[in-house]
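Bit of a strange request maybe. I'm writing a small parser for structure token strings and I need a real example to test against, not something I typed by hand. Could someone generate the tokens for this chain?
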Amino acid sequence: MKRLIGRREKISFPEWGLQQATAKVDTGAYTSSIHCQDIQEIEIDGVKTLQFQLLDPSHKNFKARKITTQSFTQKKVKNSFGQAEIRYKVSTEVLMFGEVFQAEFTLTDRSKMKNPILLGRKLLQGRFIVDVDEVNLSKKSLK
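Reply from user aminoacidic:
Good idea to test on real output. This should exercise your parser:
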């Protein structure tokens, strides 16, 4: 059964230690994205590894911690201005409505955007129906 989701929701990333961050639901975007900085490919013990830092120091959920993963790809996406760019794409566990599931996110600079996280159709598909009149239904469902 699909759950009702609002235009903005709270989402947690257990593997990354990020709890109850605000995300904008965007049915126009296929892939979800999250604001990151200091994104770089490094080698650890001869293995290609992606290292990045979530959010900005000004964000209330910011933790000065580098995230590393060896499970990543690159993807060509159109940004909000319609320009094609290459972004790193990672998969991680997310927690919404008390349910944990895998989701993919592209890593990008969203510092000029109001919401650091964007939830696209790929994450929403088969799980959620969007009600643009609502916000934070995932948080309200936990009470």
